[in-house]
């Protein structure tokens, strides 16, 4: 068995990294808008530096993105030319509810996404919609404290009811929250959390996570009630953790690290808090406030599929004198057996097969790889071409690993959407020069450029891969 006939090949973007149009047609301000590029970005997205509005000292790349707000027809046409079966995109919450707590949605925002979905269907592309991809209206952060406040569950519920009803028949694949485990690593970006001095950060993070888990279960319930054809998934940042060697302490630390990242998906896919997590929360005095009915809601409304991002694996060593790198914002010991990108991310195709097997063995639900790619500096040659063989090689090797997981290991894999199928703003660094796409966008880190779209060499290669359903990888 090779790739299934109905395998969903495509690409992925996020509203805050590509749309722009931050002040168009009634859209409100969001947390992702006020994350600057440069050295302060990490402090802001991790909730350590308060930035609730724009200032004159920073550049805010999400204001423009790649201006997909005005280029979506051109971009989706290119996706159609590549033969996409699916396009993963996200909703900007503040485009639908500018403050987040209104009763009535913004019609212009709803119409914008309706037009995008119809444009996708014009080319035979199924939209895969992430309801919240690092996106929280700033009003909800200023007024309620972000996802630490349980009131956000009702606001999110209102958003979901609006989306599921408005787009019934246009969208059937949904993801509730992007990389839900990023609450632990980038809490302002992931859940609108900013910490005042003296606050118990871990307790707040796990309370926010519980609120999102309840909201996710509610979304799953509502989606199935509105349209039984809806399929709802959860999503986390994945990547197996290797012990640096067979020292038992390293084996144990690797297990603990993986549990920390699996925790929230254990709840979403299996319907209950795992024992190891309950003990950890108890031990660290981080137990969230759980309301009556929460646990029953979680148990009865598990997701239909498990989706994840995969960029690299991690390596762990309890000994201090080892070289440390960082990939996808997870600190990791440098693995001597792997090559690394310019941004310090390990390149590990076999790690994807390992991760697929670990996740499938754990949950026994269909899987969906919704982010995978390599950030690299692309150059235009004298003929105006971008010869990105490094990107082709990266995806070829990872697709081979997927194929082995399906053919040899019998992993149930629904689809594969490459990250940043068109160049966009990097979530971690706020840069444009860290490019992922098959389509080049003429824009630099300061937002200067023509925004012209140009096909890279990888464009035609991926087109061939899709046309052959993953058989022709040359």
Sheet bearing the most strands, described? 8 strands, parallel, barrel
Largest beta sheet: what is the strand line-up? 1-2-3-4-5-7-13-14
Shape: globular
Given as residue ranges, the uncertain stretches (5+ residues, pLDDT < 50) are none
- Give the averaged pLDDT, no decimals: 96
Number of strands: 16
Q: How much β-strand is present in the residues?
A: 15-25%
Helix and strand composition category: alpha/beta
Tally of alpha and pi helices: 15
Radius of gyration: 21 Å
Looking at the chains present, what oligomeric state does this protein adopt?
Answer: single chain
From the N-terminal CA to the C-terminal CA, the straight-line distance is 20 Å
The helix content is 25-40%
Core attributes:
474 residues; alpha/beta; eight-stranded parallel barrel; two-stranded parallel ribbon; 15 helices; 15% strand
């Amino acid at each position: 068995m090779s790739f299934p006939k109905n395998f969903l090949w495509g690409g992925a973007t996020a509203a805050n990294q590509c749309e722009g149009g931050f002040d168009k047609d009634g859209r409100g301000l969001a947390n992702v808008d006020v994350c600057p590029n440069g050295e302060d970005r990490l402090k802001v997205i991790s909730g350590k530096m308060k930035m609730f509005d724009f200032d004159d000292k920073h550049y805010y790349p999400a204001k423009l993105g790649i201006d997909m707000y005005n280029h979506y027809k051109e971009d989706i046409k290119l996706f159609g030319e590549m033969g996409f079966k699916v396009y993963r995109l996200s909703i900007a919450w503040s485009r639908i509810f500018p403050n987040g707590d209104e009763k009535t949605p913004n019609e212009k925002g709803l119409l914008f996404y309706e037009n995008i979905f119809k444009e996708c269907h014009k080319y035979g592309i199924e939209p895969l919609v992430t309801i919240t991809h690092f996106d929280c209206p700033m009003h909800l952060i200023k007024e309620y404290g972000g996802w630490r406040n349980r009131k956000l569950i009702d606001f999110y519920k209102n958003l979901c009811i609006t989306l599921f009803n408005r787009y019934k028949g246009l969208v059937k694949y949904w993801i509730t929250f992007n990389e839900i485990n990023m609450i632990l690593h980038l809490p302002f970006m992931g859940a609108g959390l900013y910490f005042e001095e003296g606050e118990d950060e871990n307790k707040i993070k796990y309370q926010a996570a519980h609120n999102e888990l309840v909201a996710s279960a509610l979304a799953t319930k509502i989606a199935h009630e509105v349209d039984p054809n809806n399929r709802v998934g959860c999503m986390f940042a994945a990547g197996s953790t290797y012990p640096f060697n067979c020292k038992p302490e390293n084996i144990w630390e690797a297990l603990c690290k993986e549990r920390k990242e699996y925790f929230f998906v254990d709840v979403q896919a299996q319907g209950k808090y795992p024992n190891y997590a309950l003990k950890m929360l108890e031990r660290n005095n981080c137990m969230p406030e759980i309301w009556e009915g929460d646990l029953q809601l979680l148990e009865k409304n598990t997701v239909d599929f498990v989706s994840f991002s995969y960029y690299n694996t991690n390596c762990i060593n309890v000994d201090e004198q080892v070289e440390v790198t960082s990939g996808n914002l997870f600190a990791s010991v440098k693995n001597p057996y792997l090559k690394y990108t310019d941004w310090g991310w390990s390149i590990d195709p076999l790690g994807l097969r390992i991760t697929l097997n670990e996740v499938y063995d754990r949950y026994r639900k269909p899987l969906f790889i919704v982010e995978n790619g390599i950030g690299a500096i692309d150059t235009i040659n004298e003929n105006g071409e971008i010869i990105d063989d490094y990107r082709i090689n990266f995806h070829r090797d990872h697709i081979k690993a997927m194929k082995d997981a399906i053919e040899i290991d019998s992993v149930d894999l629904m689809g594969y959407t490459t990250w940043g199928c068109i160049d966009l703003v990097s979530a971690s660094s706020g840069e444009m020069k860290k490019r992922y796409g098959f389509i080049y966008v003429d824009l630099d880190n300061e937002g200067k450029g023509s925004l012209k779209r140009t096909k890279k060499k990888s464009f035609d290669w991926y087109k061939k891969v899709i046309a052959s359903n993953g058989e022709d990888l040359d």
